[in-house]
Automatic annotation (TrEMBL):
<dbReference type="Pfam" id="PF00440">
    <property type="entry name" value="TetR_N"/>
</dbReference>
<feature type="domain" description="HTH tetR-type">
    <location>
        <begin position="7"/>
        <end position="67"/>
    </location>
</feature>
<feature type="DNA-binding region" description="H-T-H motif">
    <location>
        <begin position="30"/>
        <end position="49"/>
    </location>
</feature>
<dbReference type="GO" id="GO:0003677">
    <property type="term" value="F:DNA binding"/>
</dbReference>
<protein>
    <submittedName>
        <fullName>Nucleoid occlusion factor SlmA</fullName>
    </submittedName>
</protein>
<dbReference type="InterPro" id="IPR009057">
    <property type="entry name" value="Homeodomain-like_sf"/>
</dbReference>
<dbReference type="InterPro" id="IPR001647">
    <property type="entry name" value="HTH_TetR"/>
</dbReference>
<dbReference type="InterPro" id="IPR036271">
    <property type="entry name" value="Tet_transcr_reg_TetR-rel_C_sf"/>
</dbReference>
<dbReference type="InterPro" id="IPR054580">
    <property type="entry name" value="SlmA-like_C"/>
</dbReference>
<dbReference type="Pfam" id="PF22276">
    <property type="entry name" value="SlmA-like_C"/>
</dbReference>
<dbReference type="InterPro" id="IPR050624">
    <property type="entry name" value="HTH-type_Tx_Regulator"/>
</dbReference>
<keyword id="KW-0238">DNA-binding</keyword>
Amino acid sequence: MASTKPGERKLQILQTLASMLENPKGEKITTAALAAKVEVSEAALYRHFASKAQMFEGLIEFIESSIFGLINQISEQQEDGLLQTQAIIQMLLNFSERNPGMTRVLIGDVLVNEDERLQVRMNQLAERIEMAFRQSLRLAASQGHLPESEATVRASLLCSFVLGRWMRFAKTGFKQLPTEQAALQIAMLLR
C-alpha cells in the first residue's frame, strides 16, 4: 500500500467526515464508523486529530476560510453595495447547496453533543456574516440606495434569512434547496 504524504490522510479524514454528514438521516457519527470509512484504525484517526472536536474544528476552519475568502473577493470586485450584498447572500446559499454535509455544521445540529466551543465558534461565524452584510449595506447607504438607519436591521434580517434557508435545507434531508426562489426573495429583502 502506498504511503500518504503528510496532510493527505488528515484531508482524507475531513473529506470523509463531511461526506458522512451528508446522510439526511442525521445519525451521530462515531469515530469507529469514521475510521471504518477511511479504512484506518481509530488509533490512526487520533494520530491526526486529538479528538473528534478537533475533526469538526478542521471542517469549521475549511468553512470559514472558504466563506470569508469569497466574501472578500466579492467585496473587492463589486463596488455597488446592494449588488455586493446580493452576491454575498447568493454565495452563502450556493455554498450550502454544494456542501450539504457542511450545512449541518453551519446550523450546528451535528455539534449538539460535541464540545460546546464548537457551537460558540459557529455562532461567531454567523456574527461575522452579519457584520459582512452590515458593511455592504452601509456602502449601499453611502451610495444612496437605502437609509443609513436600515443597514443594521437589514443585516440582521439577511443573516436570519440565510440561516433559515440553511436550516430548511438540512431539516428537509437536503430536498428543499436553499437557492430555490432565492433571487426573488433576495430582491424583496433588498428593496
